[in-house]
Amino acid sequence: MSDNTSPAKVDGRRLRSDRSRQVIVEAMLQLIAQGNLVPTAQQVADHAKVGIRSVFRHFEDMEAIFATADELWRKEFNHRLQQADEQQPLQQRITHTVKQLGNLYEDHANILKSTATRRWRSAFLKHNYQHYQNQLRSNIYASLPELTGLGNNIQEAVVAILSFEYWNRLRDHQSLSPEASISLIEDILNPLIAAK
């Protein structure tokens, strides 16, 4: 085996390639977090301090970078989505659920907006977004099992009120603070769910 194809050299190339991919994806996520919801390949390359050709050497197209970035974010989302303790009283579980989701939405608002902006043109993001919605719904029902005893309209209303879209409306369109948004959502949910 020649020096050019030794396992150490192959492993070194692979490590450099993996590092380059990571730097590019992190640059994409940083740009989105800063408010550039749909960064271009050139903007990603500039932010990552790599050449534009390097971006496309590691990723087939921009959609592949968006998909990889979205996948990384979903892992964090799943990690942070914790079911409320079923031993707690209903009101405490409602508070836990609202605060947990509000904090998650607040920390990742631009990533969620970016996904919403691009998912109409991306089969991957459309599928991922639906998967995220299903996980969110499962978490809500696991934390608030009282929902199953309520009518379908109430159940759907609760899921909608706990969505990012509703959070974003309160924060961006109605200019409420995170604390005021959490308080408002709790005030809506407490009587709705306790109506059982």
Report on the structure:
The chain is an all-alpha fold. It folds into two domains: 1-59, Orthogonal Bundle (Arc Repressor Mutant, subunit A), CATH 1.10.10; 71-196. The protein contains ten helices and no strands. It has helices at residues 7-33, 41-48, 52-58, 62-80, 90-107, 109-118, 123-143, 152-161, 164-173, 178-194. Helix 4 packs parallel to helix 7 (123-143).
SSE diagram, text form:
Elements: H1 7-33, H2 41-48, H3 52-58, H4 62-80, H5 90-107, H6 109-118, H7 123-143, H8 152-161, H9 164-173, H10 178-194
Helix pairs in contact: 1-2, 1-4, 2-3, 4-7, 5-10
What is the number of beta strands? 0
Report mean pLDDT, rounded to a whole number.
Answer: 86
Q: Rounded to an integer, what's the Rg over CA atoms?
A: 21 Å
Share of β-strand residues? under 5%
Looking at the structure, what is the overall shape? elongated
State the end-to-end distance.
74 Å
What is the percent of helical residues? over 70%
The main β sheet shows up as: none
Total of helices: 10
The ordered H/E elements are: HHHHHHHHHH
Summing up helix and strand content along with how strands pair, one would put the structural category as mainly alpha
Number of domains: 2
Low-confidence stretches: none
